[in-house]
Amino acid sequence: MEVFARVVDLGGFTAAARACGLTPSGVSKLITRLETRLGTRLIHRSTRRLSLTPEGQAFHARAVRILGEMEEAEREASAGATPRGHLRVNSNVPFGMRHLIPLVPEFLAAHPGVTIDLVLSDAVVDLMEEQADVAIRTGPLRDSSLMIRKLGSTRMVVVASPAYLERHGTPGRPEDLARHKGIGWTFPRTIGGWPFRTDNGIEEHMPPIIARASDGYAARLLALGGVGFARMAHFQVDADIASGALMPVLEDVHPGGSEDIHAVYLGGFSPQPARVRAFVDFIASRCRLPDA
């Protein structure tokens, strides 16, 4: 029943297999077995898409309700379970260094039965492939199969060092960035350009990228070194701006677009282990983002 619901909710056998830790052929066999037991076809299969039969629509509605009630019952029964076991956490580098690492000692002291692996990387990870229990992600989320807990939001800012601005000048308009140098990323980003507010609405302008960094901490160091402009989360560079080590530019036209920061973890109809629930609740209650 749970696999069937995942196939419907995620729109295919492959996505459901990934979410359930099965192979696509294994998912197909389970659906066939379910249809055989019920004596009716639930899903029309084609090479391009899946669609539910009327019987499948009715079964799916009941299945989701039943599975939800089971999840709630199990969650209530296990609410008092003591968190224990090994916890694997993946976080982007700036958030991990600024907010997460300082909280780990307190979390471990409060939950002595838990051990933790903490991996810092700005690359988006697949929780199942990386065998991570929780990941911290910034920006838009695409994987609808994940459970999500919002930790806050941060304003974005375009910055450069005073030394760079002295050598190359300060841009007065977003279009001026085309004559400057920029710092980018070694991994694909959901947001490609830098948005600015113009008379024509929101337009994207960015300088030619001459250096790429694997994470926000490295990008910050490149900006501090005078390499060029970087678009960063404000909490990453607020201390540098306050000290004058980095200067924000184009603030009058920069929309100040914010990016949400989430804790994400594998969802499903089964309750999460107590250690995962305890960790997500802990960081959600302790994190205080400057621009949240």
TrEMBL record:
Keywords: DNA-binding, Transcription, Transcription regulation
Keyword DNA-binding among record annotations: yes
Cross-referenced Gene3D superfamilies: 3.40.190.290, Winged helix-like DNA-binding domain superfamily/Winged helix DNA-binding domain
Residues in HTH lysR-type domain copies: 1-53
Molecular function, one GO term: sequence-specific DNA binding
Chain coiled-coil ranges: none
Superkingdom: Bacteria
Any one GO BP annotation for this protein: DNA-templated transcription
Record-stated family: Belongs to the LysR transcriptional regulatory family.
Protein name as it appears in the record: HTH lysR-type domain-containing protein
Organism per entry: Azospirillum argentinense
